[in-house]
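Dear colleague,

Thank you for sharing your sequence with our group. We've completed the structure prediction you requested, and as agreed, I am returning the results in plain text so they can be pasted directly into your records. Please verify that the sequence below matches your submission; if there's any discrepancy, let me know and we will rerun it promptly.
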Amino acid sequence: MAAFSPIGFKTVYPASKTFIHSFSRGLNEELRDTNVFVSVVNPGAMKTNPDVVSRIEKQGFWDD
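Please find the predicted structure tokens below.
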């Protein structure tokens, strides 16, 4: 989900996700007339370490 929103103090991370999202969609368009399809998966937040878990849980279900 980082591809859709800037994140303060972690600017490069969401920017790189935005690039992958945009590049994949453009590549899929270029390959439209072939048998090659390019998909992008945009998973939500992943609980990877205690700091991340704490931030995710503070946001709540709907990111209030």
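Summary note from our side: DSSP finds two helices and no strands in the chain.

Kind regards,
the structure core
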